[in-house]
Amino acid sequence: MPVYSHSRLACFEQCSLKFKYKYLDKLKAETEQTIEAFLGSRVHEALEKLYQDHKFQKKTTLEEILSYFKSEWDKQCTDEIVIVRKDFSKENYYDMGVRFITEYYNKNTPFNQTKTLGLETLVNIDINNDGKYKLRGYIDRLTCNGDNLFEIHDYKTSAHLPAQDNLDSDRQLALYAIAIKNMYPQAKKINLVWHFLAFNQEMRSSRTDEELEALKKEIVTRIDAIESAKEFEAKESALCNWCEFGPICPRKKHLYAVNALTPEAYKKEDGVRLVNEYYNLNEKKSAAERELSDARTKLFDYAKQQNLENIVGSDVIAKLRIYPNVSFPSRTDLDRGEVEMIIRKAGLWTEFSQLDTFSLSRKMRAGQVDPDIIRKIKPFVTLSETKRVYMNKKSKWD
């Protein structure tokens, strides 16, 4: 079994096809680094140098660290770096980096709140101490004070500030806390600290021993699901715009191909032409269905006014019938439990309850069902295909 990481687990959860391309097929990335990833790397390097200098009693000034940031930016910035948000330039992102570093420097100087134990520290985690479920990761900065209070620091350059609840359930730094507890048994407490540089905000969390044990069990379950996966389906989300495998992904490759065409060639491309043809026919069908719905409403209104059930036309007779429908509270409705209780007390639960096969199949495809259960169910499962076409407007990123 391979050594896992938070990134590897998150990749499978984000898109199992991307996981396959990256970790199983080991394909070379089809697109270059994004500007967001480039910015994050350069800012991390600058802050690492700042604390490395401080460990050696070198009081690096803000001007010196910004000079280092500019030097590394200029040295490593290339034309191949991808900018997804076309309204912004590399200079905009560089200026953001300068602001991140400046605000962090001014807020945390003189950088002696705690003692730095390690920078970009590699940690290894053996979940069950049996060598089977192994993970590894890198801690941006590990610190400790005189009371054996350890802190795991992580720098974030994203434009999103999460809610505290999200941090209290964050997996990455909690995994690192498991490693630190093993490395430093004397640790009385381990704080998890995030620095959201775009907002000049520091946010904190911690985990109890019980929570860390629960996390271990969750990780084992997730790794088992990944290892037993046989199908790797593409999962679309906003993150697709930053995926390095877009040009070969069946959900995105045509977009990459036609975006490289001239406007005239774009209109003539077979796929574009077929989609446009289908869309136009579907629009006509939708218009006809709306007209049919309006005509149906008018028929029933007329029948009600005239007290009719059959209405004669030129060549046909319209027979209008109204049948009552019975609907019950949905699963999320608070009244659902009351209805179920009445059915149970009446001894009718077995007669009216049924297996939710839709939810079960969805969880099986997502790898969220125990492999042993899947093995037992498989002889009773019939595989088939349902073909549908969904029409969506292109977003501003396409």
Sum up the overall morphology in one term.
extended
Radius of gyration (Å): 29 Å
Helix content: 40-55%
Instruction: Please tell me the CATH architecture of the largest domain by its name.
Output: Alpha-Beta Complex
Strand content: 5-15%
Order of helices and strands: HHHHHEEEHHEEHHHHEEHHHH
Q: Output mean pLDDT.
A: 89
What is the domain tally?
2
- Total count of strands: 7
Q: Tell me, what is the CATH class of the largest domain?
A: Alpha Beta
Spatial gap, N to C terminus: 38 Å
**Largest beta-sheet characterization:** 5 strands, mixed
> What structural class should be given to the helix and strand makeup?
alpha+beta
* H/I helix tally: 15
Uncertain residue segments: none
Read across the widest sheet, the strand sequence of neighbours is 1-2-3-4-5
The CATH topology of the largest domain, please? Lambda Exonuclease, Chain A
Sequence-ordered SSE layout with sheet pairings:
Elements: H1 6-14, H2 16-24, H3 35-55, H4 62-76, H5 90-108, E1 115-126, E2 134-144, E3 149-156, H6 164-168, H7 172-183, E4 189-196, E5 201-206, H8 209-228, H9 253-259, H10 263-268, H11 270-306, E6 310-312, E7 317-319, H12 336-345, H13 349-352, H14 357-365, H15 371-377
Parallel strand pairs: 3-4
Antiparallel strand pairs: 1-2, 2-3, 4-5, 6-7
